[in-house]
């Protein structure tokens, strides 16, 4: 069985969340998430690695909203390009 062909491919999914769909169903044993931080400002947002948050929020005078989120690596990599706040 390859990484993307496990039993979860037949499980129904609804793509309702804000982030790209994951390769595995969230209830699949192969669904592995990592900690990221969603940085929000003025209705817009981007996702950064926890180690990058400090540099990011220190680069401006704005008050950002920080939310801990958990995404798989492929979801993170498939996020839309961020063009700045
Ligand atoms: Zn799976």
Keywords:
binds zinc ion; single chain; 2 helices; three-stranded antiparallel beta sheet; 3 strands; 85 residues; alpha+beta
Describe this structure in words.
With 85 residues, the protein is α+β, with helices and mostly antiparallel strands. It has one domain. It is 12% helix and 24% strand. It contains 2 helices and 3 strands; from the N terminus they run ββαβα. The chain has helices spanning 53-57, 73-77, and strands at residues 34-41, 44-48, 65-71. Strands 2-1-3 form a 3-stranded antiparallel beta sheet. It is elongated. The protein starts with 33 loop residues before the first strand and ends in an 8-residue tail after the last helix. Bound molecules: zinc ion. Zinc ion (ZN) binds at residues 6, 8, 24-25, 28, 30. Residues 6, 8, 24-25, 28, 30 line the site of zinc ion.
Sheet-strand content, in percent, reads 15-25%
Largest sheet: 3 strands, antiparallel
Give the end-to-end Cα distance, rounded to a whole number of Å. 42 Å
Please trace the helix and strand order, writing H or E for each element: EEHEH
Gyration radius (Cα, Å) is 15 Å
- How does the overall form come out from the CA principal axes? elongated
Helix content: 10-25%
Instruction: State the secondary-structure class.
Output: alpha+beta
The tally of helices reads: 2
Count of the separate structural domains: 1
pLDDT under 50 segments (min length 5)?
none
Ions, cofactors and other ligands present here are: zinc ion
Mean model confidence by pLDDT: 88
Strand order of the largest sheet: 2-1-3
The counted number of beta strands is 3
């Amino acid at each position: 069985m390859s990484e993307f062909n496990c039993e979860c491919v037949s499980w129904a999914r609804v793509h309702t969340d804000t982030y790209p769909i994951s390769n595995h169903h969230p209830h699949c044993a192969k669904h592995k998430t990592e900690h990221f931080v969603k940085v929000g400002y003025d209705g817009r947002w981007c996702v950064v690695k926890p180690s990058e948050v400090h540099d990011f929020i220190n680069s401006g005078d704005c008050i950002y909203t920080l939310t801990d989120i958990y995404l798989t690596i492929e979801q993170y990599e498939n996020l839309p390009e961020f063009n700045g706040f």
